[in-house]
């Protein structure tokens, strides 16, 4: 009896201690919250992309001196309790598993004293070998000025047109080039007009050719507008007023209907008459995602079917626009992450998307069923399908590459095409044109490449 009473007292003491510990834990776990004030970035060696089986570097700044920082992916600790230095900074490394899945990963950055947390996105990219250069005849232009953005082709006149611009507003250096489509010799060039009192110009970015009226359409993204130049001598035909097309990016010309369609980020598609050179309509592209806005970027036009295709950069969606009726169909596009490039086969049976988040090429049928999903390179920007040869071409800005697949997404070549390739376009007979940008010390900077399958 006495023994039992002593055991009961001990049990009570243990229970009290356990309860006290739990209360203390609860108080520690829910102390005064703090704002996450740091800034954290993750990259590969020398700020390169992160590949499976390599070492990644984590850099942070803006933390309290001596603050403890821990970096985790799920249940795995990547960086364990490193302290910020006297300037509130830290640097650490971790190994990326060889079997790491390609794509964007949520990584948690936690701090102690004071406690705070932030989720950052870390992208693991595909590391692809180059091969297949012997399958193509390749011609390169001389190095041009500025930073090349896009290229458009005049099938009728055997010429191509390329846009170039440098820097942030006020952009004072920009050029529209006209080149021979075969030799890539520069035939003419034009400097856009001054746009403001700071000396900024109506810099040119997107470009499309109107062979019916002999004009070239360009987008002036910085002034939220567009302009039209003459093909023969690049004389300015019309500069539209600032604000005519919000953050105008891509432009495509519909020769059948005499229209130019311009993507304007979250403002849909602006429609211009290529004969009268007037803005005649705005096609709104609503998002089906609650509280979100559809962000138009690249455009692909099937003139025969009267369908304009555009994916959303910020929502997992794609839009099909009937340019005859104005009807807009928005469909899910969940296989990609931040889709930015699009093209369609001539018969409309295959649609090709490239994404910034997934570093992949996704091929769907007309109903949206995913047929293939191929790791394609780092930071793909643009895609074209060459119906003549049945090949898909993707420019990857982050890996300086032009990836080539068949219609089923199987890689057939992966080529180096100079620094930061930005755009790819194709002719009806299968010639491929690529433009790239400038990188200090690279002899292939700001060049236009023509590739023909042997």
Automatic annotation (TrEMBL):
InterPro entries: Haem_d1_sf, Host-pathogen_enzymatic-act, Quino_amine_DH_bsu, WD40/YVTN_repeat-like_dom_sf. Gene3D superfamilies: YVTN repeat-like/Quinoprotein amine dehydrogenase. The keyword Signal applies. Residues 1-26 form the signal peptide. Keywords: Signal. PANTHER family: DIHYDRO-HEME D1 DEHYDROGENASE (PTHR47197:SF3), PROTEIN NIRF (PTHR47197). It comes from Celeribacter persicus. The keyword Signal applies. SUPFAM superfamilies: C-terminal (heme d1) domain of cytochrome cd1-nitrite reductase, YVTN repeat-like/Quinoprotein amine dehydrogenase. This is DNA-binding beta-propeller fold protein YncE. It comes from the Bacteria.
């Amino acid at each position: 009896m006495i023994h039992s009473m002593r055991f009961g007292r001990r049990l009570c003491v243990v229970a009290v201690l356990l309860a006290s510990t739990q209360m203390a834990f609860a108080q520690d776990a829910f102390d005064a919250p703090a704002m996450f004030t740091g800034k954290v970035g993750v990259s590969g060696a020398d700020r390169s992309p992160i590949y499976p089986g390599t070492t990644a570097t984590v850099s942070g700044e803006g933390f309290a001196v001596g603050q403890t920082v821990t970096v985790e992916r799920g249940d795995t600790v990547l960086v364990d309790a490193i302290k910020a230095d006297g300037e509130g900074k830290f640097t650490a490394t971790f190994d990326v598993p060889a079997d790491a899945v390609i794509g964007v990963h949520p990584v948690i950055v936690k701090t102690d004293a004071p406690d705070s947390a932030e989720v950052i996105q870390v992208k693991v990219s595909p590391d692809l070998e180059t091969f297949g250069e012997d399958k193509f005849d390749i011609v390169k232009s001389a190095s041009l000025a500025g930073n090349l953005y896009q290229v458009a082709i005049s099938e009728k006149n055997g010429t191509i047109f390329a846009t170039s611009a440098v820097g942030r507003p006020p952009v004072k250096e920009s050029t529209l080039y006209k080149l021979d489509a075969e030799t890539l010799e520069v035939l003419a060039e034009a400097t856009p007009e001054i746009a403001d009192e700071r000396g900024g110009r109506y810099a040119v970015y997107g470009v499309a050719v109107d062979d019916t009226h002999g004009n070239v359409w360009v987008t002036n993204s910085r002034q939220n507008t567009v302009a039209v130049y003459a093909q023969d001598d690049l004389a300015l035909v019309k500069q539209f007023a600032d604000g005519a097309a919000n953050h105008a990016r891509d432009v495509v010309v519909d020769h059948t209907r005499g229209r130019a369609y311009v993507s304007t980020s979250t403002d849909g598609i602006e429609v211009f008459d290529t004969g009268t050179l007037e803005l005649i309509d705005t096609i709104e592209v609503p998002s089906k995602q609650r509280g979100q806005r559809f962000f138009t970027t690249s455009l692909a036009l099937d003139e025969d079917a009267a369908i304009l295709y555009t994916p959303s950069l910020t929502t997992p969606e794609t839009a099909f626009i009937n340019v005859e009726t104005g009807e807009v169909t928005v469909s899910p596009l969940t296989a990609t992450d931040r889709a930015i490039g699009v093209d369609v086969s001539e018969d409309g049976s295959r649609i090709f998307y490239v994404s910034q988040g997934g570093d992949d090429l996704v091929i769907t049928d007309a109903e949206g069923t995913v047929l293939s999903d191929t790791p394609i390179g780092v930071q793909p920007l643009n895609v074209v399908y060459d119906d003549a040869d049945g090949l898909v071409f993707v420019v990857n800005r982050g890996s300086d590459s032009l990836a080539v697949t068949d219609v089923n997404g199987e890689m057939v070549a992966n080529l180096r095409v100079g620094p930061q390739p930005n755009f790819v376009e194709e002719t009806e007979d299968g010639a491929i044109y690529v433009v790239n940008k400038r990188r200090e010390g690279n002899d292939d900077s700001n060049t236009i490449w023509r590739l023909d399958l042997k």
